[in-house]
Every structure is written in C-alpha cells, then in structure tokens.
C-alpha cells in the first residue's frame, strides 16, 4: 500500500478526519491502512489477542485502551499472530511491549508508548463499537490510513477512486 496522508488530505480533505494524537511507530510497516475493526478495553488484552488470532483480511485493529501506559495491550506474540492472520495494522491508544521485535514484523503498529508490564487476560471490554480519541471517532468499517505524518480516517476507501453517483 503506497500513499502519503498529507496527499490524501490535499485530495480528499472534506472526507477525512485527522487524528490529533501523536503516536509512535513500532511495526516494520510504517505505511499501512485498511478497514477498521475496534476494541475498547482497559489494561486487559484478552480481546486483542482473540481478535488478532482471527482472520484479518487486511483490516486495521484500533484499540482504545483509555490512553493507559500502565501495561501493554500488544506484544510480539500477539503482533506475530496478526501478521500470520493477514491484519494490515494495529493502532493502540495505550502501550505495547517487545518493541525491538515489533520493529521487525511486516505490519503497521502505532501506540502511545511502551511498557514491559503484561496486562490482564480476562477479555473484558467491547468489540466493534465506535471509539474516540485524538478528535476522531473510529467506527468499524470506516477506513484508516497511517504513515509517518499521522493517521487519517474516511467513511470509505478513498484510494479506490471517486464515489459512483449513478
């Protein structure tokens, strides 16, 4: 997938939301995008593990961890499962761990920071619900595009071309 979020804003400004949260790059693919799937959880990565161990079909998992940096919601084993299952990327509004290994994996991963502490594994939280941070509502089925400049979100795949208004 090749694009620049700045160019997407230039071409599709009226259709795009730009996330104001300043994330760090952790994965080996700094440019990634795809349809959004969401999880809302707090210091518990059970749903993250379960979801990323399922078929990704190029989707991007957006995890709203409440911005907590107290424990990691994704590490090397879960991220490797995401790669193996065809996920396009992971955005964590929280922490990750195993960052040296994450950088070697062929997947996009963004997070607020890192913490070596494990999270709970109770699978507490919600899946496929709208989540909001950085001034953007991330809705399941919308499209996320991420690169070095940031994250933008659209209601459709803007790279697929103009909407047919027949």
UniProtKB/TrEMBL annotation:
Enzyme class label: lyase
Transmembrane spans: none
EC number(s) from the headed UniProt entry: 4.1.1.112, 4.1.3.17
Keyword terms of this UniProt record: Lyase, Metal-binding
Cofactor(s) the protein requires to work: a divalent metal cation
Recorded catalytic activity of this chain's protein: 4-hydroxy-4-methyl-2-oxoglutarate = 2 pyruvate; oxaloacetate + H(+) = pyruvate + CO2
Protein's job: Catalyzes the aldol cleavage of 4-hydroxy-4-methyl-2-oxoglutarate (HMG) into 2 molecules of pyruvate. Also contains a secondary oxaloacetate (OAA) decarboxylase activity due to the common pyruvate enolate transition state formed following C-C bond cleavage in the retro-aldol and decarboxylation reactions.
NCBIfam families, sorted: NOT-MenG, PRK09372.1
Subunit structure: Homotrimer.
Entry's family note: Belongs to the class II aldolase/RraA-like family.
Full protein name: 4-hydroxy-4-methyl-2-oxoglutarate aldolase
Species this chain originates from: Actinocorallia aurantiaca
Gene for this chain: rraA
